[in-house]
């Protein structure tokens, strides 16, 4: 008569450290968790198909590959967001440089936000703003026309070809901000609306 397997050991085959490292960490066996035998140790700890360890190792490897692929996908999204932010930062800096240059252009009047100003260049190279458009000058235009810009209320400049698009954006923001529920209230007001019972 064969001796029964001792608690904590697999019946039929001793545990192998090589098998453990190949399959990953195995769960410790306890035939009586908390002092109570829940199932028969014979049925739960007997030696099974040796290919089970191979399948477990393959499953661990596949999980590692999925985790790596998932992390790579997330990092790719973050990299694309960083590139987008870099492009936005570059545009902000270019627009700021252009706005600063336009504020230093010669002008014999007080510039008022909301008005369109026309940029001309003299033969001497000096640039200046005028409120007279090239169309109003007609054939008697004295200097080269460089472009038209609208002075916005934040003192930025919008090129003439972008005025309609920029005004549409500003109108949308004004409508959103004028609605009473457009801006979410702080957490304190949310607590007042939903008091804890």
From TrEMBL:
Region (Disordered), start-end ranges: 1-22
Keywords noted in UniProt: Coiled coil
Coiled-coil portions: 68-99
GO MF terms, alphabetically ordered: identical protein binding
Keyword presence, Coiled coil: yes
This protein's record includes keyword Transmembrane helix: no
The name this protein goes by in its record: Chromosome 1 open reading frame 50
Underlying gene: C1orf50
């Amino acid at each position: 008569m064969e001796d029964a397997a001792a608690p904590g050991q697999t019946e039929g085959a001793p545990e192998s450290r090589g098998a453990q490292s190949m399959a990953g960490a195995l769960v410790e066996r306890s035939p009586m968790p908390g002092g109570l035998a829940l199932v028969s140790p014979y049925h739960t700890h007997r030696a099974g198909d040796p290919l089970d360890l191979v399948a477990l190792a393959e499953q661990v490897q596949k999980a590692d590959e999925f985790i790596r692929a998932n992390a790579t996908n997330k990092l790719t999204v973050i990299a694309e967001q960083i590139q987008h932010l870099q492009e936005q930062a570059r545009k902000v800096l270019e627009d700021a440089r252009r706005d600063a240059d336009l504020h230093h252009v010669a002008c014999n009047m007080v510039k008022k936000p909301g008005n369109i100003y026309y940029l001309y260049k003299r033969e001497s190279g000096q640039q200046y703003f005028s409120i007279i458009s090239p169309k109003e000058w007609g054939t008697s235009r004295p200097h080269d026309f460089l472009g038209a810009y609208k002075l916005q209320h934040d003192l930025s400049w919008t090129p003439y070809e972008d005025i309609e698009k920029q005004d549409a954006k500003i109108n949308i923001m004004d409508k959103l901000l004028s609605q009473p529920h457009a801006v979410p209230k702080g957490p304190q007001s949310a607590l007042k609306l939903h008091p804890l019972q």
